[in-house]
Each structure stands twice: as C-alpha cells, then as structure tokens.
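Hey L., structure's done. Input below.
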Amino acid sequence: MQLAQDRDELLKDFIARFNRATLGIKELQMSTVVTAIMSGTRNRYFKMSLSKNLPDTMHELLMRGEKYVDAEEAYLISKGMKNRSKPESTKRNIPGELEPQDNRDKLTQDETR
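Output:
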C-alpha cells in the first residue's frame, strides 16, 4: 500500500485509484487503510479529518473522501472564475452589421483644433 497522490493529481482521481488498489486485498484492516490513505494524500484537510475521527468502514472512508472531493472541485471552479482576465461582452455580434468605429484616432492634428 505504497500509493501516493501525484503532485497534479486531483483528490477524486487519487481516491479512485486507492479504492481500486484495495479491492484486491483480502482481510483488509481499516487501521491499515486509513494509515495508507493518510500517508498518500496531499489534501491536508482530508488527512486532518481522518486523524480526528477514524472511519469504521471503507464505505464511511469513501463517503468522507467524497465531501473533500466536492470541496476541492468547488475551490477549483471559484479559482478559475477569479483568474479570468476580462468578462466576455454580453453584446451579440450580428453578421453583416458594422461595428462602431472611433474616428478620433484617425483625425489629423488640424482636424482636432
């Protein structure tokens, strides 16, 4: 059980990979599972939650992991929205319609006086 979450791997993907790896192990002890997932995850909040209150079953472990997956996805969505450079224009472009032009740039100095 030497699984570790990769640097850019999402918690969702790590938990899925961890779950697949544990399916083939007979007589799996929950203390071993919790220790392995705690040492493998990079999500410190999930790790702290597991250390405070140990899950009794694999189902409970996966359900708790799902909560932290949801939190991670919400964070990534909000982070993506904050990183947008400019809000997109709400005006629709109609084909064949000319866009207004600012002619002030093209005027000579004599014309602006």
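The longest helix spans residues 58-82. Residues 11-80 form one domain.

-- N.
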